[in-house]
Amino acid sequence: MRRGVIVALLGLDLPEAMILAACSNLDQEERRRAAGFAFDRDRRRYVLSHFALRQLLSGICNIHTSQLRFATEPLGRPYLQRPSGIDFNMSHSGDIAAYAASKTCRVGIDVEMIVPSAPTELAEHVLTPMERDALQQLPAEEHPSVFFHYWTAKEAFLKLHGMGFTVEPQSVIVDLNNGTASCSTLGLAPAHIIWLPAGKHAVCALAAPHAVDLYDVSDRLARFISTTIPNINSSSCCESGFLRPEQGSQHMAIFL
Question: Is 101 within the bounds of a domain?
Fold first, then answer.
């Protein structure tokens, strides 16, 4: 059996009252960061995306969200300090958040809203000459989507290695046909890339050290979030109800 990764995509558009309730479940540092956003839209997205992350990880670990402890690697990549042994990564763009988590390998994930002008404005800075040539061979209407397939693969690859775009994206070579990314100039191990369904207006890529089996829990996470937030003050709320073994499928049991 291949090693597995839990993935989820979540819409971040919820009423303000639900966002305020979700904020109460974040830790002090997360609430401080949420309060620092200049625009309510960005604050709401931050709160809900981090609330959902806590629900996902508490379910995988089968512990209360308050027992989760986070820390950061030297270049800023967050990791789960307690409990240990689970790697995760998250990304959000517009009203979409994307999550990946695994007990068996490191993961990187990136989601981006498609911006039609991006290929013209950014291709020279993001793509290698060969990638730009491949893009130009395609019909113009395909350029935005294909560009963001390259972009998300590169960022997911760099996040897998704990770097993000602190590294020039042109140093990462993406093979769209074979689903691989590599960066020999920095001596980084190649990665397997999987693009996840993200609708017509976004692209999402997952990077892993090797081929993996995916377990998409997007619908289950969305349902759990929508029913949990209204009961945020209930004593039973956030008691790692998401992905409990007795609620999960046989596939989910390999993580729990």
Answer: no
Total of domains in the chain: 2
pTM of the full predicted structure? Answer: 0.89
- By residue count, the chain amounts to 256
Residues 114 and 158 in one domain: yes
93 located within any domain: no
- The answer to whether residues 157 and 205 belong to one domain is yes
Nearest CA to 26 out of 62, 60, 55, 3 is that of: 55
Tokens matching residue 209: 């050290």
The answer to whether position 100 is within a domain reads: no
Q: Show pLDDT as tens, one digit a residue, over the chain (256 residues).
A: 457 999 999 998 877 777 778 888 888 889 999 999 999 899 999 999 999 999 999 999 988 888 999 999 988 899 999 888 999 999 999 999 999 999 999 999 999 999 999 999 999 999 999 999 999 999 999 999 999 999 999 999 999 999 877 789 999 999 999 999 999 888 999 999 999 999 999 999 999 999 999 999 999 999 888 887 766 554 334 444 555 544 433 323 334 3
CB atoms within 10 A of CB 108: 28
Q: Domain of 120?
A: 106-209
Exposed e or buried b per residue across 63-83, where buried means at least 16 C-beta atoms within 10 angstroms of its C-beta: eebeebebeeeeeebeebeee
Q: Sort 171 into a burial class: Cβ within 10 Å, 0-12 / 13-18 / 19+.
A: middle
Q: Say yes or no: 169 and 181 in one domain.
A: yes
Q: 119 CB contacts (<8 Å, ≥6 apart)?
A: 135, 143, 144, 146, 147
CATH number at residue 120: 3.90.470.20
Q: Is residue 205 part of a domain?
A: yes
